[in-house]
Amino acid sequence: MRIRATVAAVSGALALSALAVPVSQASSPSSALTRADTAPVISKVVVNSGKPIVLGTTATKKVTVSVTASHSSGIEDALSYIWRGRDSNPNLYGFGFHPDGEKAKCKAANATTSTCTLTITVDPGYLWNTNATTWRVYAGAWGKDGNFTEKDTFSSVRFQRLSRLTANASPEPVKKGSTITVTGKLDRANWDTRKYAGYASQSVKLQFRKKNSSTYTTVKTVKGSNTGTLKTTVKAVEDGYWRWSFAGTTSTPAANATGDFVDVK
After folding, report:
1. CA-based nearest residue to 152, from 212, 197, 92, 203
2. What is the largest CA-CA distance in the chain?
3. How does pLDDT run across 234-249, given as a tens digit for each residue?
4. How many domains does the chain fold into?
5. Which of 28, 90, 122, 140 is deepest in the core (most CB within 10 A)?
6. Is 248 left (phi over 0), alpha (psi -120 to 50) or beta?
7. CB atoms within 10 A of CB 57
8. DSSP state of 193
């Protein structure tokens, strides 16, 4: 466990050190900023289509970041990375994930404005459960004349631990008016252990969908156990699908179980 912590800290520092310190020389044309009034203007940064970054226990995820910027000379390149800590500079306690390539792909909207896109590979192997929180988004842009602008915190993005939800309704088939028992489990990625563990004491909705319907209706809300297990009973009325539905929390995304069909005789 301690070895993994060290690797994460070092990797984060390396990821940022290549960008945060000599950032004006990282991948683009030439000189650093000459005057503030000639610097490019960054108007928009979108990370992961505006959605939280959800990660399981082992699989990496490629996150797309787009930076929209303007300058009188046009936009040559842009840069963005995701970080958290006291400073984006790794020497000042920063940690983050950097772009996969050195140069972004820029598409001009007109002579002065472009949107530049890059990808960042995020690896849960470098994360702890405490990293399921809001991260900062750095952004920088170069004009075609070499002028540069940057902002350590242009926007933010939330990291979440992937959730999973199962459902089982029995018996199958069942006589009309008899009792159906619906069980299941809510768990989520544990970045400390790199395994999945039950999400304790969460409120989860039991939902039903009629056989020929496409819409689920909430029947009741049940609170899970301290291991994330779920159990309740309902009366058998008609053929249909039973599932559990979790609304999500700030650290964990919403999840719906696959509906389990029950044939009512």
Report:
1. 92
2. 80
3. 999 999 999 999 999 9
4. 2
5. 140
6. left
7. 18
8. T
Please report, for residues 45, 192, 217, 249, the alpha-carbon distance to residue 74 in angstroms, rounded to integers and kept in the order given.
17, 45, 53, 42
**CA-wise closest residue to 31 among 112, 114, 116, 145:** 145
CATH code assigned at 227? 2.60.40.730
Considering only CA atoms, which of 200, 262, 259, 212 is closest in space to residue 236?
262
For residues 155 and 139, give the distance between their C-alpha atoms in angstroms, rounded to a whole number: 9
Cα–Cα distances in angstroms (integers) from residue 43 to residues 23, 102, 265, in the given order: 19, 21, 61
For the segment 3-31, what is each residue's pLDDT rounded down to a tens digit?
Answer: 222 223 333 333 443 333 333 334 444 44
Instruction: Look up the CATH number of the domain holding residue 136.
Output: 2.60.40
Pair (99, 131) in one structural domain: yes
Give the pLDDT of residue 102: 77
Burial status of residue 208 (CB atoms within 10 A of its CB: 0-12, 13-18, 19 or more): buried
First to last CA, the chain: 54
Nearest to 28 by CA among 138, 98, 116: 116
Using a 10 angstrom Cβ sphere, with 0-12 exposed, 13-18 middle and 19 or more buried, the burial of residue 99 is buried
